[in-house]
Design a protein that fits this description.
alpha+beta; Peptide Deformylase; five-stranded antiparallel sheet; two-stranded antiparallel ribbon; 3 helices; binds ligand K1U; binds zinc ion
C-alpha cells in the first residue's frame, strides 16, 4: 500500500528516530509499503519519517541504469561505521522537498551495517550514488534534511517556497 509522503516543513521530519528492537509483521509491512511508495514517486530512497513513522528504517534502490536489475534494499537500524576521506559532490533532491535541488558534499565511500528483513546483521561498502543515497536517508533518521547542509539564506529561501506551495496545495 502506497503511503503519503510528508512535505517539509513538518515537525515529524525533524525528529530523531527510535532504534528498532524487534522485527514485527507491522514493521515488515511498513518496509513493503515504503518500497512501493518510493518506486511510485519515483525515488531512489525513502526513510520512515517521510511517511510519518519514527522507526530507524530506510529503503533504497539506486540501480537506475537502463537495463539494470532492480535492487530493493531494506535497512533497519543502519549505521555508518567508516567513511572515506575522499568526498563527492552530488546535486541532491528529496521527495519531502519536491522540485528543489542543491549540491551537497559527502564522503564518497561509506561502510554501513544494518539489520535486514531476515533479522540478521548485514554490512556493505557503498560508493557513488549508493553512498550519497544511504547517507541522505540516514540523515532523515536523525532529523536532518539535505537543505541543512546549505547556508541559512538558501535554506530559508527553499523553506519559504515550500511553505507557499503547501498553502497553495491545501487550498486546492
Ligand atoms: O529521501 C528521499 O527524499 C529520496 C531521494 C533520495 C536521494 C536523491 C538524490 C540524492 C540523494 C538521495 C530521491 O529519491 S529524490 C528522486 C531522485 O533522486 C530520482 C528519481 C528518479 C530517478 C532518479 C532519481
Ligand atoms: Zn530526502
Amino acid at each position: 500500500m502506497k503511503r503519503p509522503i510528508l512535505i517539509h516543513p513538518d515537525p515529524r521530519l525533524k525528529k530523531v528516530c527510535d532504534p528498532v528492537a524487534d522485527l514485527s509483521d507491522e514493521l515488515r509491512a511498513l518496509a513493503e509499503d515504503m518500497l512501493e511508495t518510493m518506486y511510485d514517486a519515483p525515488g531512489i530512497g525513502l526513510a520512515a519519517p517521510q511517511v510519518g513513522d519514527l522507526n530507524r528504517l530506510i529503503v533504497m534502490d539506486c540501480a537506475k541504469d537502463e537495463g539494470a536489475e532492480p535492487r530493493p534494499m531494506v535497512l533497519f537500524n543502519p549505521e555508518i561505521v567508516a567513511s572515506s576521506d575522499e568526498s563527492n559532490v552530488y546535486e541532491e533532491g528529496c521527495l519531502s522537498i519536491p522540485e528543489e535541488f542543491a549540491e551537497v558534499t559527502r564522503p564518497k565511500v561509506v561502510d554501513v551495517r544494518w539489520i535486514g528483513l531476515d533479522g540478521e546483521e548485514h554490512g556493505e561498502t557503498f560508493d557513488g550514488l549508493w553512498a550519497t543515497c544511504v547517507q541522505h536517508e540516514i540523515d532523515h533518521l536523525n532529523g536532518k534534511l539535505f537543505i541543512d547542509y546549505l547556508g541559512p539564506m538558501k535554506r530559508q529561501m527553499i523553506t519559504r517556497r515550500m511553505q507557499k506551495r503547501k498553502r497553495e496545495m491545501a487550498r486546492g
